[in-house]
Write a structure and sequence with these properties.
single chain, 141 residues, mainly alpha, 2 domains, two-stranded antiparallel ribbon, globular
């Protein structure tokens, strides 16, 4: 499968569920935007309650500004959460990770350029997208 075929398949606005194709309706997307990780959310909430929102911002900055995961610099409860998530599910196959890695090595830079210079500006200019920038305080920096 070449790069353009892959991008076309990734950009298709349908998903496969129980052997049926489903359109990504606005209601479906709104529902997915509300989905979260309650365990991770509670951990961050505890950090904020103990140390304030600047502590959460500091964690966020460490995670996005480091190539390697800075485990030793994170609070203990986040270290434990990450260590528990390292355990791979039963359905995991080495071959899939290797193929994904090869795909990203070949096409990652092209995809990131598309994302940075086309997709993100368009998405963030949308009313829902700008909320992400407001909530993460990216408009104030």
């Amino acid at each position: 499968m070449n790069f353009y075929t892959t991008i076309y398949k990734l950009s298709d606005s349908r998903i496969q569920t129980d052997n049926q194709l489903m359109k990504w309706t606005n209601a479906f997307l709104v529902n997915k935007r509300q989905a979260a990780d309650p365990i991770a959310d509670n951990i961050i909430l505890n950090v904020v309650e103990r140390n304030g929102s600047d502590a959460a911002q500091n964690i966020f900055d460490k995670l996005i500004r480091n190539i390697d995961l800075p485990i030793q610099e994170l609070p203990d409860e986040i270290k434990l959460f990450i260590q528990q998530k390292v355990i791979l599910p039963e359905w995991f196959r080495d071959k899939d990770i290797i193929n994904s890695n090869l795909f990203f090595k070949d096409h990652g830079p092209k995809l990131l350029l598309i994302l940075y210079f086309k997709s993100l500006p368009l998405l963030y200019s949308d009313a829902k997208g700008v909320q992400v920038l407001i909530n993460t305080r990216r408009l104030t920096k």
